[in-house]
Fold TauD/TfdA-like domain-containing protein.
Amino acid sequence: MTAQPGSQIRIIPQKHDPTSKVNFGAIITGCDMNNLDEDDFQAMRNAIYVHGVVIIRDQQDLLPINQYNFVKRLDPEARAEHGWGTSKEAQEITGITGKLKWYTIPGTPAVQMFGQGYQGNDHYGLKAITVQGTSHDNYHAETLPKENIARGETRFVVFHYDGIVYGAHPSRVTTLRSLRVPRGPPLTVRWDDGSGRTMKAQAGATAFYSNEQLYDLLTPEEKALADNSYWETAPHPFVWTGNGKVRSQGVGLVSSEKLDLNELPPWSVDKVYKYPMVWVNPVTGKKGFQVRAEAVRKLYLKSAPGAEECIVEDPEQIRTWLNEILDRIIAPEYINIPSVEEGDVVAWNNWGVMHSATEYPEAYGVRTVHQCHIASSTPPLGPYDSTSTKGELKV
Ligand SMILES: [Fe+2]
């Protein structure tokens, strides 16, 4: 389909395997992200929200500053800073995400280099850097032996949306440009949850599932509950969740062990948010079930607008309730792992899909990506206009 009369941009829905139930994803061609007029920009924005994930081909010449400009154009009021913050302090307080070392591309406020391996003597001004790839070892309770990784088996590291959800709202859209793609036979992603499930993935690929599809998998009663309920984050949630590990299928927690609030770095109540359980797609109006397992400290459950509210604070009760819901979507038929080529930019609606990195063996070579997202200037939209942004934590 052509975006606009006269436009070169083509947006083609991704073709999925006949066994797949994935209903999102599109390929975009004919786009020059260095030069997007307003009509083409709006077509791109629309495509991200309609298709959830888009793979924009042929962006080999995209300047890092223009990758940032595209993300900023999607949220002009947002702070000119990466969604995780970029200071040393920010790296320390992001806890589990802080285990990833990131490198800002000089001359940009929010484009980070990730990947794996030696990035050359001078990569856009970053000198002689060797990047440690993302490993599931930091997140999973039981890890795959290194021999399995070397022979092409892997795991989803952890499904998440981007953002620190403490003093900064989740980023609206994330963009990921592949500059170098590892080469080799497809890897086998293992669930290792007793189900025997596996699926194939390109080395270094990013996997996605849709929270809008997850919402559709809820019963009518659960949808009513989700529509009317809220969840509250912990202060410094990724420090608070401490050593709590993720299940081997890459989503949901193994235990409800948490740090005590007084063990956390200094925090303030005004940065602790209360989010709707359901976020509404700003373009299509579709609803997505959006609770972040590692960050949720409290549930405010209500089955109808006038119903009595039930507050749940028991971490074990929250964990088991949430895992049962997440189990419905963490199945091969709901996961989209688009193959990418060098020069592709993958852009996604961070308020509608979850994504995960996959580990790959060193023998496949170097991976280089430029990633950009910025904390949203506004909280996500709930199904009603009663979106609350401040938690009710008392000190
Ligand atoms: Fe991410």
In short: Residues 93 and 239 are 6 Å apart (CA to CA).
